[in-house]
Write a structure and sequence with these properties.
Elements: E1 10-21, E2 24-36, E3 41-45, H1 52-59, E4 67-72, E5 75-76, H2 81-87, E6 88-91, H3 103-113, H4 118-131, H5 147-159, E7 165-169, H6 177-192, E8 196-200, H7 204-210, E9 213-218, E10 221-226, H8 228-233, E11 239-244, H9 257-260, E12 264-270, H10 274-282
Parallel strand pairs: 3-8, 3-9, 6-7, 7-8
Antiparallel strand pairs: 1-2, 1-4, 4-5, 9-10, 11-12
Length: 294
């Protein structure tokens, strides 16, 4: 494969990954196709065990696919894993920073791992600390920081070497609304700088707000893809939500509410949401979970 033909930061085709559990074979992902252009946020949605984390592991060279291929930052993820690793940043679900070190020390350690010299580390660390409003806390032990500050440091560490592609795996889980909004703003600045972001999230409003393209994965397959607006536009009409004053006792939602003697508390009319899109393609609502199994 000639890598010069590949211009998009993420291009994956036909990815397959299976695992063995005793005598059983578990197909974690089956024929995954993904693509993300420069400066785009690609949102990857799906329930626990759907295959999101497995897909990210393949793209970040942490797992080798059984079939298919992936080109990340212009390099083959199987044949050129070292080049891929130098061109990407990865922020996982769990904080990867050293809680016993200072913020500045965490950035310095990551910079040295990527071969940056002392001056480059100093300048880049100061730049990132300022960008994430962490300068005042930079020389304090990280375990004394708030959860939101630690998460922002996590992202800063992933950016120390100026990666072309950034993988964010559930980056705002557990953050308060203010810290979450700060991280959203930073993701917007990253893509404005031309970086590509692959974002996995359990918050559909987050995907709706940030993602240029969304891919919904279920049982190891992509079941829907497109822009958030295009996916919502496929659902014609409005959603009508009726809240009853009390639940019916016969187990049925009566069509004739008056005849059933059921009082209506509220009626809400709204445009379709990504949750409605998800329900249409998977048959269930999207419930936030802390962690994915596959």
């Amino acid at each position: 494969m000639n890598d010069t033909k590949h211009t998009w930061p993420i291009e994956a085709e036909g990815l397959v990954k299976t695992y063995r559990a005793g005598k059983s074979v578990i197909r974690a992902i089956e024929g995954i196709d993904l693509a993300a252009a420069p400066g785009q946020v690609l949102g990857l949605l799906g329930p626990n065990g759907a295959g999101k984390s497995t897909t990210v592991k393949v793209l970040t060279t942490l797992s080798r696919p059984d079939a298919g291929h992936a080109i990340v930052a212009g390099h083959d993820a199987v044949r050129e894993p070292d080049r891929v690793r130098r061109a990407i940043g990865v922020v996982g679900q769990r904080a990867a920073v050293d809680l016993e070190a200072t913020g500045r020390e965490n950035l310095g350690l990551q910079g040295r791992l990527y071969g940056l010299d002392t001056r480059a580390i100093r300048d880049r660390s100061s730049e990132l600390l300022a960008r994430f409003s962490l300068t005042d806390a930079a020389d304090r032990i990280v375990k004394t920081w708030s959860g939101g500050m630690q998460r922002k440091l996590d992202v800063a560490v992933g950016l120390i070497h100026r990666p072309q592609v950034l993988f964010l795996d559930e980056p705002t889980t557990g953050l308060d609304p203010e810290a979450r909004a700060d991280l959203w703003a930073e993701i917007g600045r990253l893509t404005a700088d031309g970086r590509t972001v692959l974002l996995t999230t359990h918050y559909l409003d987050e995907a709706d707000r940030l993602a240029n393209q969304v891919a919904i994965i279920d049982r190891g397959r992509i079941v829907a893809r497109g822009t958030p607006e295009a996916l919502k536009a496929e659902l014609r009409g409005d959603a009508v939500v009726v809240e009853l004053q009390e639940l019916p006792t016969d187990g049925h939602a009566a069509a004739a509410l008056d005849a059933a003697g059921l009082g209506v508390a509220t009626v809400t009319v709204a445009r379709p949401s990504l949750d409605d899109v998800y329900f249409r393609h998977t048959g269930r609502t999207y419930r936030p979970q802390a962690q994915e199994a596959a």
